[in-house]
Write a structure and sequence with these properties.
Number of helices: 23
Strand content: 15-25%
Radius of gyration: 31 Å
Largest sheet: 13 strands, parallel
Strand order of the largest sheet: 1-4-5-6-7-8-10-12-13-14-15-16-17
Structural class: alpha/beta
Length: about 550
């Protein structure tokens, strides 16, 4: 028997139910009533009944990811669910305080929209017109959503592999004042850029974001809290730079044509001299910089600068920079021959056995011409004999990819240090550098030559005062970091240090010792340490043998 269920007599008709639920009249077409009924059920779902304070707390938890792309994905997603969520999302400063824009989160590999896809779907609700710029196949970007959140951004990082995309992003940075922006990092391309004459930017792409284009739009008014700026590869309009009050400023890896002249660099640093505490310039020092115009010209004083990094393709870049500036408060110094660093990083197979000047890769690099050798000898001589007052203040020193071929100037040849009678010239120069750094406590050597290994162990952490051949004590190091692609050099250091400490030639052990090498050699190094019965606990209170990843653990 077929049973037919009947509607209770006190229940309103179906159309009446839909009409009451959505506030529609009874003569509304059924298809509209049906859609309104579904929408009404969504609006009455438990998530939409939560107080805004709870939703805000959930959003803050969602924005706590360390992955910048996930943070942006989450922020854009929740701001396009509903009008209520959008209002709450835009009121949540932590959602937009840290934004990193890279090629990966601009578009997906297959060219489909990724994080900004939601912006297109909800463009009408946001009352904005999507701005789609087709730059090349697979590169589509919608940036209008960024303009809405600019006033809330504290940290902005832009890493682009296409200058047109970078230009599109930068245009939006002038659409509204960024009153809370504290840190801005701009990166284009890779370190290899510093090997080339120039890049060819699109028309008018000379980035003025760091400059005041006119008095009404002065950078100081647009970015009142901006204190940390990092520029790498971007072709900046140096002559129009107007950012002041910076405490942190790295300028890195510019093509030869895009590097600031020494006069422009002086201008940038001078207008920030009262606040600048950390400055970094790598692969961006003018290749053929000018010497001071006359002997009486005083170097530009940077009174608050405590941390300086110089990365040079030729040692003369660093020497000329040092002649133009002085930093009486300097405590942390890093010097890097980036020509050797970049070549070894990008062409490891071609340079694993050394740097042959006849290598076609070197011959075809404009920035490396003319080059006689990869040398830091004259730079180190000037530091020891000419600018010793600078080294005397340094507490932390890092030397990366230093090469000391025996090509000495009169500064070293005229020094009658008795150590020359018992040690090679390069070892003596390396040791004289350690002697000069009287306040040195932390030393990092990246791919050091053997002369540095020997210098470290001539008199561990201090000289024997009864040794008449010694011209002065070396500093009492507390932290030592050694990284080398040659594990045998690290073993040489350990053996010499163990022998010296066994003879009690040094006053104390290190507080911390870190040894780093390539991943494939870490196991071999540990086995060698065990087989040679070297007890690291006798060399340092704490020690680590690890894979070299470009930075040290502590």
């Amino acid at each position: 028997m077929q049973t037919i269920a009947s509607t209770p007599t006190n229940a309103p008709p179906v159309t009446a139910q839909h009409a009451e639920a959505s506030g529609l009249t009874n003569d509304t077409p059924f298809n509209i009533i049906n859609r309104a009924s579904k929408l009404q059920s969504v609006r009455k779902s438990p998530i939409n009944t939560l107080p805004e304070e709870i939703i805000l707390h959930i959003f803050k938890l969602g924005a706590s990811s360390r992955n910048s792309q996930k943070r942006i994905d989450f922020a854009v997603l929740v701001s396009h669910v509903s009008r209520t969520w959008r209002n709450v999302a835009f009121s949540c400063s932590s959602l937009w305080s840290d934004i990193t824009i890279t090629a990966d989160n601009m578009h997906s590999v297959d060219g489909e929209l990724t994080i900004v896809n939601a912006s297109l779907l909800r463009a009408k609700e946001l009352f904005i017109t999507p701005n789609i710029v087709c730059l090349e196949p697979g590169t589509i970007m919608i940036m209008n959503w960024l303009r809405l959140v600019l006033p809330r951004v504290k940290y902005l990082s832009i890493h682009c592999d296409t200058l047109q995309v970078a230009w599109l992003v930068m245009k939006h940075l002038h659409t509204a004042p960024m009153e809370t922006l504290e840190t801005c990092k701009l990166k284009y391309g890779t370190t290899v850029l510093s090997f080339h004459h120039s890049i060819i930017p699109p028309p008018l792409v000379r980035f003025l974001f760091l400059a005041g284009q006119n008095e009404e739009k002065a950078a100081v008014n647009f970015f009142p809290k901006l204190a940390r700026v990092k520029v790498s590869g971007f072709p900046v309009s140096w002559s129009q730079w107007s950012l002041t009050r910076l405490t942190f400023l790295p300028i890195n890896f510019m093509s030869l044509h895009d590097r600031p002249s020494m006069d422009m660099l002086k201008h940038v640093l001078t207008i920030n001299r009262e606040t600048l505490e950390k400055f970094e310039i790598q692969g961006a020092i003018q290749q053929f910089g000018t010497l001071p115009h006359n002997a009486d010209e005083l170097p530009t004083n940077l009174p608050r600068l405590a941390d300086l990094t110089l990365g040079y393709l030729s040692q003369w870049e660093a020497i000329i920079f040092s002649l133009h500036f002085e930093a009486p408060a300097l405590k942390h110094l890093k010097l890097c021959d980036i020509s050797r660093s970049i070549l070894a990083q990008h062409w490891p197979q071609d340079f694993k056995d050394g740097f042959d000047l006849n290598n076609p890769i070197i011959q075809n690099m404009p920035a490396l011409q003319p080059f006689n050798n990869f040398s830091s000898t004259i730079l180190l001589e000037n530091l020891v004999y000419g600018w010793s007052s600078l080294l005397e203040r340094v507490e932390t020193l890092a030397l990366e990819h230093f090469s000391l071929p025996p090509l000495f100037s009169n500064l070293f040849l005229q020094d009658n240090d008795p150590l020359k009678q018992s040690h090679g010239a390069r070892v003596v120069l390396a040791y004289c550098m350690l002697q000069t750094c009287t306040q040195l406590r932390r030393l990092a050597l990246i791919n050091p030559e053997e002369c540095f290994i020997h210098a470290l162990n001539m008199y561990p952490d201090g000289a024997d005062t009864d040794d008449t051949k010694n011209s002065g004590p070396a500093p009492a190091l507390t932290h030592l970091y050694l990284a080398s692609s040659h594990p045998d050099r690290l073993m040489l250091f350990l053996k010499r240090r163990a022998e010296s400490l066994a003879k009690e030639e040094g006053p104390h052990m290190l507080d911390y010792l870190e040894l780093a090498t390539e991943k494939k050699d870490v196991g071999h190094l540990l086995k060698a340490i065990v087989s040679d019965h070297i007890d690291l606990s006798h060399l340092a209170k704490s020690s680590l043998v690890t894979e070299w990843q470009g930075s040290f653990t502590t």
